[in-house]
Structure to design on (561 residues):
């Protein structure tokens, strides 16, 4: 697939929870190799949108196409297998396990030898294990986690845990990486580190990145394009600069006088 | 005057019986670890396996070497089927729904088994010599030695499985956080089925060991009740805990039978493990090896 082609297409998806419309007919196109940020006030529907792309929620209406294939109703495990990896807003590592185990679990979908095959022909499974371990070691080096590989993840600092979670998602060798507030709760230095890793992943591996983030500085720095959601609707889309100056976006963030506001 | 020989004999017997409890508890721990479900029907699984073995031996006239594998396969199929038909629809429901389902299942199994296999106790003779195995000062009943060895073998196999095998690590991931496991591309439902299938294997061997010791009838299911003190003592989610808990229960039971029963006229053997269980719940509710769950709010 040539660079810049549409890789992921979200077509008029909608999702309601009870009477609340979380996502209301949102459409967007994600091009291969870009960093697309999804921003918006709290409750705008960003995470719901991401949950639909990764298969955790099923949209009430609309379709999601990944490389031309309709993935709207596929289970999350299948979508991960196709090459869409994600991180979670709240750290969701396997806490009792080591950094290494967490990353090896990210390799799960790429492992071919089933348990029965590995009983029949032990050597194949062993060889495969070693190959996967090498990939994981490369990632540990890339993320500067080599010294922590045997540490249980629960013992790491918050920023490092976020980094391990990024590593685990990368271990899937995804084509598209969905990051849900990867810098949330970080200090400035940790944010800069994370931003650099995201850029490196995008540039060196060509991985498409969809980023949900509240830190506008980071968003404006690293995104190619920005989509703004407000109350479940996409209200603006474009390069960072044009979005920043868009009156609708400023209104969404700052609000307007009650008289000028119509109920959505 | 303290009789060392007598105590030693009680403890030895307790160790063997305890390891046989561990075997059953292992099935319980396995399911809890992987699926968070509490299986109140583990004892009935064991009973069903016992009935399959004696059914094959006595009703169908099959040889022993065939009956046991059939029981193992039958119990795996039963575990898979149960997960598919009864438990999968309950995924995402409150945990109490699963508990009630397994309690209901236990009652159904106990009620229905005699319809198919008859109500009278059937002997399940192991094809091994009856004479006790004499090792130095110990004289060990062979049936219980076989049961204890089976249990130890499974402890080793399961420890390896959970710590080293890819499938076992994936199963731990499923147990830890189902959503994240899904995001890793792990087919959670498949692992649930595998866990129940493995519980079936363990129950089949439990049915063999306990059936040989007690004979096979509906009361065989009662050994399942001993699983609760075992797993509460050892920790609900710990393979090692199942073994250690089993040993404690086995030894305490035998010591109570040997020393307390003559004083009070009997019966302490049966409730001593539960007294320990209640004490454990008061001081360390997650058991000796269980994971302490800390919820950060």
């Amino acid at each position: 697939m040539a660079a810049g082609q549409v890789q992921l297409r979200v077509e008029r998806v909608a999702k309601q929870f009870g009477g609340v419309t979380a996502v209301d007919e949102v459409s967007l196109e994600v091009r291969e190799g870009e960093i697309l940020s999804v921003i918006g006030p709290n409750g705008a529907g960003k995470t719901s949108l991401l949950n639909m792309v990764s298969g955790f929620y099923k949209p009430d209406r609309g379709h999601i196409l990944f490389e031309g294939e309709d993935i709207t109703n596929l289970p999350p495990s299948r979508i991960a297998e196709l090459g869409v990896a994600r991180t979670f807003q709240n750290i969701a590592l396997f806490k009792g396990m080591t950094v290494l185990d967490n990353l090896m679990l990210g390799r799960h979908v790429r492992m071919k030898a089933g348990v029965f095959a590995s009983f029949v022909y032990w050597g194949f499974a062993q060889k495969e294990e070693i190959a996967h371990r090498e990939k994981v070691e490369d990632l540990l080096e890339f993320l500067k986690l080599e010294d922590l590989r045997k540490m249980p993840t629960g013992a790491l600092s918050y920023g490092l845990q976020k980094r391990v979670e990024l590593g685990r998602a990368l271990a899937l060798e995804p084509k598209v990486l969905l990051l849900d507030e990867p810098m949330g709760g970080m200090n400035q230095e940790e944010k800069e580190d994370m931003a650099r890793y995201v850029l490196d992943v995008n540039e060196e591996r060509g991985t498409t990145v969809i980023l949900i983030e509240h830190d506008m500085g980071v968003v404006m720095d690293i995104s190619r394009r920005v989509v703004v959601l407000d109350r479940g609707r996409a209200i603006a889309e474009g390069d960072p600069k044009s979005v920043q100056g868009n009156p609708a976006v400023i209104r969404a963030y700052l609000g307007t006088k009650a008289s000028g506001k119509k109920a959505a | 005057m303290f009789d060392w020989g007598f105590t030693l004999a009680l403890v030895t017997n307790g160790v063997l019986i305890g390891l046989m409890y561990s075997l059953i508890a292992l099935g319980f721990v396995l399911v809890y670890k992987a699926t968070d479900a509490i299986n109140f029907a583990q004892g009935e699984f064991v009973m069903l396996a016992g009935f399959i073995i004696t059914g094959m031996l006595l009703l169908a006239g099959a040889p022993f070497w065939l009956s046991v594998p059939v029981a193992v396969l039958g119990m795996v199929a039963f575990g898979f089927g149960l997960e598919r038909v009864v438990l999968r629809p309950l995924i995402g429901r409150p945990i109490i729904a699963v508990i009630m389902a397994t309690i209901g299942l236990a009652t159904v199994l106990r009620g229905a088994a005699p319809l198919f296999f008859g109500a009278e106790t059937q002997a399940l003779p192991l094809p091994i010599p009856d004479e006790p195995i004499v090792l130095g000062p110990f004289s060990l009943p062979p049936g219980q030695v076989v049961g204890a060895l089976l249990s130890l073998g499974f402890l080793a196999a399961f420890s390896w499985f959970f710590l080293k095998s890819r499938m076992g690590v994936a199963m731990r991931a499923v147990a830890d956080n189902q959503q994240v496991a899904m995001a890793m591309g792990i087919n959670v439902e498949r692992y649930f089925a595998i866990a129940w299938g493995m519980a079936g294997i363990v129950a089949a061997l439990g049915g063999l060991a306990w059936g040989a010791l007690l004979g096979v009838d509906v009361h065989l299911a009662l050994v399942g009740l001993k699983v609760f003190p075992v797993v509460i003592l050892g920790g609900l989610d710990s393979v090692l805990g199942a073994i250690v808990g089993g040993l404690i229960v086995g030894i305490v039971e035998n010591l109570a039978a040997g020393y307390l029963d003559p004083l009070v006229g009997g019966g302490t053997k049966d409730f001593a493990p539960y007294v320990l269980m209640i004490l454990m719940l008061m001081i360390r509710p997650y058991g000796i090896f269980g994971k302490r769950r800390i919820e950060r709010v």
User: Anything to note?
Assistant: The CA atoms of residues 88 and 180 of chain A lie 5 Å apart. Residues 6-260 of chain A form a domain with the Rossmann fold fold (CATH 3.40.50.300). Chain A is about 40% helix and 25% strand.
